[in-house]
Amino acid sequence: MRTRYATNPEQIPTFDTEALRSHYLVEDLFPTDRVDTVYSHEDRLVVGGVAPQTGTPVRLESPDALRADFFLQRREAGVVNVGTGAGVVDVDDTRYELAPKDVLYIGRGTRNISFNGSGEAAFYLVSTPAHASHPTRHATLADATPVSLGEQRTSNERTIYKFIHDEGIQSCQLVLGVTELAAGSMWNTMPAHIHDRRTEVYLYFGLEPDQRVVHLMGEPHQTRNLIVADQQAVISPCWSIHCGFGTANYAFVWAMGGENTDYGDVVPAPITQLR
Ligand SMILES: O=C(O)C(=O)C[C@H](O)C(=O)CO
Ligand SMILES: [Zn+2]
User: Fold this and answer.
1) Where does this protein hold Zn(2+) (predicted)?
2) Which CATH architecture group holds 8-273?
3) Ligand 1 pocket at CB < 6 A
């Protein structure tokens, strides 16, 4: 398990490109037949990934840093298949087949979780501390709450699929969904926003290997950029905007943890005030 400590917006002017990347960008998150995890001290979010290849079940072990008997002893998790084909997640005695972009919410107290696939599935995991146990739920894009935003004129036409939120799959604090950009639209989350009560992580996927997303972060009056490749994540502290534009089409998983599960609890960062 890798660790990322929390940062303060006053540090941003002192960070060069490498410092920005080492604090906020998560690379190499999908090793073959092994689960990798990153523990962020921003709201204690854990992100993880695995690309199961051989058909052998890959078990989610509890890293020492959690000091737990099993990974979800005091946590809940959302899993999204960000690969190109189906894969299987075994949760205790139940088997879930996840098509690309399917989501599985796994409640606190679940002891045994393993990932199976033969090369096409890639499982992304986001976990937050949990004080109660909610039922495990599998959902497809068709089950999610879709919200259409943006327009072609501003190159930000997109559909936001909300899966885990206060009016969808119930959780303690995890909020999670998937956003798809319309063909020809490049901007996500523009106009941007911040949410002081929640940390957010974006995981970009479905981007061709030779293309990139330019992700903007920082306080609205002091922005920076990170150049992000396919299947890489960006940690966004509560004081930071999080938006980006791709050099080609892409999708992303957004996931939050913190004070509430109210998707709408955001403060807009108007385009004209960005610097
Ligand atoms: O394109 C968008 O706009 C988003 O997907 C925004 C995210 O859902 C988000 O940042 C939620 O706080
Ligand atoms: Zn947000």
Assistant:
1) 193, 195, 200, 242
2) Sandwich (2.60)
3) 149, 158, 160, 177, 179, 188-189, 195, 200, 242, 254, 266
- Scan for tokens 């990932």, then name that residue: 115
pTM summary value:
0.98
Residues with CB under 5 Å of ion ligand 2 are: 200
| Dist. CA 269 → ligand 1 center (Å) | 13
Where do the structural domains in the chain lie, given as residue ranges? 8-273
CA of 192 to the centre of ligand 2 (A): 8
Distance 254 CA to ligand 1 centre (A): 7
Summarised one tens digit per residue, pLDDT across range 195-214 is 999 999 999 999 999 999 99
Residue 239 three-state SS? coil
Nearest atom, ligand 1, residue 156 CA: 1
131: annotated binding-site residue? Answer: no
- On the question of pLDDT at 55 being above 90, the answer is no
What is the identity of the amino acid at 139?
A
Cis peptide leading into 220, omega within 30 of 0? Answer: no
Return the H-helix or E-strand segment holding 23: helix 17-24
Give the pLDDT of residue 145: 85
Q: Is 200 annotated in some ligand binding site?
A: yes
ipTM above 0.90, yes or no: yes
Task: Please state whether the peptide bond connecting residue 191 to the residue before it is cis, i.e. omega within 30 degrees of 0.
Answer: yes
- Mean pLDDT score of the chain: 97
Secondary structure class of 30 (helix, strand, coil) = coil
